[in-house]
Amino acid sequence: MGLRTGEQYLDAIKVRNKAEVYVLGKEVKDVTTNPFLKPSILSFKATFDAAWDEDTKDLARVWSPFINDETNRFNHIHRSPDDLAAKVKLLRKISHKVGACFQRCVGFDALNTLYITVELMAQHGKTEPKEKFVEYLKTVQKRDLALAGAMTDAKGVRTLKPHQQPNKDAYVRVTEVTKDGIYVSGAKANITGVAASEEIVVLPTRAMGPEDQDYAVAFSVPTDSEGIKIIVGRQLNDARRLEGGEIDGIPYFYNHEGLVIFDHVFVPMDRVFLLRDWQYTGQLVEIFSAYHRQGYGGCKAGLGDVIIGASYNLAKQAGVEKASHIQEKITEEIFLTETMYAAGIAASLNAVQPCPGCWWVNPMHANVTKHLVTRFPSQISQLSVDIAGGILGTAPSEWDLKNPKLREYIAKYLQGIEGYTAEDRIRMVRLLENVSLGVAFQIESVHGAGSPAAQRIMFTRLYDLSYSEEVAKRLAGMKSEVHFTQKTEPWRETETEKLAKSK
Ligand SMILES: Cc1cc2nc3c(=O)[nH]c(=O)nc-3n(C[C@H](O)[C@H](O)[C@H](O)COP(=O)(O)OP(=O)(O)OC[C@H]3O[C@@H](n4cnc5c(N)ncnc54)[C@H](O)[C@@H]3O)c2cc1C
């Protein structure tokens, strides 16, 4: 069985009772009923539902040669550029169903990253990681496991390498190796959906040298392994979820991130994919970050669609949807949204194949996609705030609406055009508030998959300035060394492509 329903997923994480999850300082035993986490769980569940819903099942189900059966796309290893584009399309579509981050992409990208990494290691004669990883992959696909991806370390002082840190656990590290497995300690920060996951796939977060070899580790562990503690982060408006309402407190769908503590956690050897293999960490980070940056072209475009729809509806409710400046603003929102999506699709269809059977995104386009995402969501939100009016920050609560003494007044003074009620207006305002000003659209857009500076570093690494300079010199009639080849773009090879070619 390679596919689970959303209900089967919920049943599975309900009994995952060894997991140590903390919310607002208190331990949570059942994440599926906890009011703080429930919206996140429902959002994660949407990735399972996608494989059964008529409108998404063709995108969400995919044949896996590893298990000779269908698997959920979120656990699939890309087999073609079309597969990569299908990822972006599916992410856009699921965003329409939940209006939030559905939290399963980091695990998805971690699987694909490890697949290319162990393949490159095998090409260099180190075959054991590939054998172990393929066995693990089969388990994940057959059981349709919910994975979180944990790459970002606590990192302590940013300018110091792992081994230079005053806190030796600032990056997750191997503390002991036995014949059966390894022990690890440290913490991974900002981990999306981790309390909703069944397994955590852990990757190193930066390129490392030989002196950092204890930190050069990649593995997978069940989320409820002994020694793992998950501290769920706070978000704007989060306490509203505890009010028990149905409008204000985003009781439907949302996402969460967590600080994941690894306190002397045992990892069996068959789940350890990189062990002190510092030579592969640079490529691994390059591969992962490009995969994750491509995906944002789908999910953030999907959230853009929700915001466009909400802006348009609120304009209609206020009777201003035909005003030329409003139409212009909505057109701008469409342009910004479609630009992010176009970049994500380009990163997919112009894919790179660093090894036989490996399909990686186009690294330049993937970095461009994410860099657009660091800017455009805040612009889209700003436009939606303009269109929605001040009510976006001042609307009465649903409790005022439900108070018999106030209900009539709110109905009278908050209604715009006929056909929509004051409650409709408040509902749409709350949706827009939570989607456009929330973590996934504002903060994750900037920092998820690396801060903006990380993409700019990649632009300068990948773009061959000396080639463009020679092109310009030739056209200016100066002495030029330009050598034209069939290659169209002035791009250099990535570290991953170089490693793939080296023997
Ligand atoms: C909502 C959300 C979800 C996320 N989900 C996940 C997830 O599921 N899994 C995961 O692994 N990670 C996840 N991340 C983490 C994300 O990848 C990191 O936030 C990102 O890499 C930035 O790291 P940081 O947050 O530690 O920022 P910092 O490193 O503290 O960056 C702050 C600033 O310092 C700059 N800076 C950092 N280091 C240096 C340096 N050495 N020299 C100069 N400038 C520097 C940065 O460019 C930035 O401007 C998530 C983040 C967010 C916000």
UniProtKB/TrEMBL annotation:
GO MF terms, alphabetically ordered: oxidoreductase activity, acting on the CH-CH group of donors
Stored Pfam families: HpaB (PF03241), HpaB_N (PF11794)
Gene3D superfamilies cross-referenced by the UniProt entry: 4-hydroxybutyryl-coa dehydratase, domain 1 (1.10.3140.10), Butyryl-CoA Dehydrogenase, subunit A, domain 2 (2.40.110.10), Butyryl-CoA Dehydrogenase, subunit A, domain 3 (1.20.140.10)
Domain of life assignment: Archaea
UniProt-listed InterPro entries: Acyl-CoA_Oxase/DH_mid-dom_sf, AcylCo_DH-like_C, AcylCoA_DH/oxidase_NM_dom_sf, HpaB/PvcC/4-BUDH, HpaB/PvcC/4-BUDH_C, HpaB/PvcC/4-BUDH_N
Annotated HpaB/PvcC/4-BUDH N-terminal domain residues: 5-274
Domain HpaB/PvcC/4-BUDH C-terminal residue range list: 282-477
Stated name of the protein: 4-hydroxybutyryl-CoA dehydratase
Organism encoding this protein: Acidianus brierleyi
Keyword set, alphabetical order: FAD, Flavoprotein, Oxidoreductase
